[in-house]
Each structure stands twice: as structure tokens, then as C-alpha cells.
Design a protein that fits this description.
By secondary structure, this protein is of the alpha/beta class. The protein is built from 9 helices and 8 strands. Strand 4 (about 80-85), helix 4 and strand 5 (about 105-110) form a beta-alpha-beta unit. It is globular, with a radius of gyration of 16 Å.
Length: about 210
């Protein structure tokens, strides 16, 4: 599955992106950054709480305190919350609080993070999102070494959904697919094109071909 990834610090722009995506898919990812865990900043909680989602969405939280965002995410109808393993926190507590809200549970991991580091949490989560870029910047270059890590993960833990996020373009799409990943998040290669719908459909054709 190809999932558009939406990243902006302008709530009006985000609303426009969501409406565009609703014209060609029923699922998208909203990227949220706090300027602390990563240097970049996206929309804040007050702007987020005012959103009306025209399609189902998951949230990728590149933030230091994910539970601070939980109320706003629940309010707008987010289906799944994916936060970063690299924050300093009690992960089991965070996951239990997200679960109480009836939301899907996901952990994102940076390129340098080893599977052995987060293995103890696999029984508590639905999804592992592997970043193929260093987080926080739209259009960052793809790190191909991630593919071997994802392939190993899929071989070892086939029952857990996995995604790859960051730097995926048409020219590396088939290599990403070949590692066995369940879904692929694509940002600038879809949303920054003249026709996001045509770009998305081209990704789908290459992926399914």
C-alpha cells in the first residue's frame, strides 16, 4: 500500500493537502514535529484540533512528549498513533495510554536504531515504521541500508505490520517493495508534484506491476 505523507507548518496548506489526497486515496499519514525532538516545526495542537479529516489518517509524531498530543489526535479522529522509540520515556506506559483511547499503536525507528533495541516492545504494538531518512526534513535522501534491516525484520516477525517512510521515489520503489514491507509512506514525490493524483497513481502502477 502507498500512503501519502503530509508535512507542513501551515494548517491551511495541510487542509488543502488532505482534500487533495481524499480525491485519490482513503488513507494518509500526518507528520507532526515539535521543534524539539527534531529541529523542524509543523502545526501545533490548537491548529490540529481544528482539523476536519476528509479521510482516515494515522499520525507520525516526531515529538518529545507524544502523550501531550493524544487528546487533539483523538478529537480529530486519528486512527493510529506512531511515535518515536528514540525519545526518553516509559514506552510501555505510553503505549498503554494510547491503547486506552482505542487507537492503533505504532513505533517509528530512526535509521541507526537496531531491532534488538526495540524488540521488547513488539508484543505491544501493531506497526513498526522504519525511517529511511533522518527525521524532520521533507525530501531528505533515502538511506538504502535500511532495506536489509526491514527484510530481516519481516523474516523474523512476519505478524507485525511494517512500513517504510522517507526518501521513497519511483526509482527506488521496487527495491523498497522487495524487502517485504507492508506499506510505504511517500511525501514530496507525491505532494510536491503538479498533479499529486497522477503521481500517486503512477506509484501504485509501479508498485502493483
Amino acid at each position: 500500500m502507498i500512503v501519502p505523507a503530509l508535512l507542513t507548518n501551515d494548517v491551511k496548506k495541510l487542509e488543502e493537502m488532505l482534500d487533495v489526497c481524499a480525491g485519490f486515496t482513503d488513507y494518509a499519514q500526518i507528520d507532526i514535529m515539535d521543534g524539539e525532538f527534531v529541529p523542524s516545526l509543523s502545526i501545533g495542537k490548537p491548529e490540529l484540533e481544528g482539523l476536519k479529516l476528509p479521510l482516515s489518517c494515522e499520525a507520525h509524531l516526531m515529538v518529545s512528549r507524544p502523550l501531550d498530543w493524544l487528546k487533539a489526535l483523538k478529537k480529530i479522529g486519528i486512527k493510529k498513533v506512531i511515535y518515536h522509540f528514540e525519545i526518553q520515556a516509559d514506552h510501555k506506559f505510553i503505549l498503554s495510554e494510547i491503547k486506552k483511547e482505542g487507537l492503533g499503536l505504532g513505533i517509528a525507528v530512526n535509521p541507526a536504531t537496531k531491532i534488538s533495541e526495540f524488540k521488547f516492545l513488539l508484543e505491544y504494538v501493531d506497526t513498526i515504521l522504519f525511517l529511511a531518512v533522518n527525521p524532520g526534513f521533507y525530501g531528505s535522501p533515502f538511506i538504502p541500508e535500511i532495506l536489509e534491516k526491514v527484510k530481516f525484520f519481516k523474516d523474523e516477525f512476519p505478524g507485525i505490520q511494517s512500513g517504510i517512510d522517507g526518501g521513497v521515489k519511483l526509482d527506488n520503489l521496487l527495491a523498497v517493495k522487495a524487502c517485504g514491507v507492508d506499506y510505504i509512506c511517500v511525501g514530496s514525490a507525491i505532494l510536491k508534484e503538479k498533479s499529486p493524483k497522477e503521481a500517486f497513481e503512477k506509484f501504485q502502477r509501479v508498485f502493483n506491476g
